[in-house]
Amino acid sequence: MSKLMSLLLSPEKNPLARMHKESVSRRLKHYGLRFEDLYDQKEDLDIKEALARLPREIVDARNQRLKRAMDLSMKHEYLSDDLQARQTPFRSYLRDMLALL
């Protein structure tokens, strides 16, 4: 990645990228999702393979987060504030497995 692209996309260096990351984080916390939960295994074969290689409990936790988010969305509700405060939307569980592929 070029130095300019790195500067533009890095939340640590670009205030607009930081604002965008905070906005995405806030929206993910409303539903208790992680950023990697949004990757679609039907669209990307690498995601499908990485999920197949992960331990069952990690995949089950991902599926549970997705089900809870769909349920909250259908009810037009958000997680309670105390649950939102405990969410970690950018904690990765797929990155290491994708790096192996």
UniProtKB/TrEMBL annotation:
Please cite one Gene Ontology biological process associated with this protein.
Answer: mitochondrial electron transport, ubiquinol to cytochrome c
Give compartment(s). Mitochondrion inner membrane
Establish whether keyword Transport is in the entry: yes
The alphabetized UniProt keywords are:
Electron transport, Membrane, Mitochondrion, Mitochondrion inner membrane, Respiratory chain, Transport
Q: Which GO cellular component terms are attached?
A: mitochondrial inner membrane; respiratory chain complex III
Q: Among its keywords, does the record have Membrane?
A: yes
**Stored SUPFAM superfamilies:** 14 kDa protein of cytochrome bc1 complex (Ubiquinol-cytochrome c reductase)
Q: Pfam families this protein is in?
A: UCR_14kD (PF02271)
Which Gene3D superfamilies does the entry mention? Cytochrome b-c1 complex subunit 7
Subcellular location, principal: mitochondrion
Bilayer topology term: Peripheral membrane protein
Q: What does this protein do?
A: Component of the ubiquinol-cytochrome c oxidoreductase, a multisubunit transmembrane complex that is part of the mitochondrial electron transport chain which drives oxidative phosphorylation.
The family assignment reads: Belongs to the UQCRB/QCR7 family.
By what name is this protein known? Answer: Cytochrome b-c1 complex subunit 7
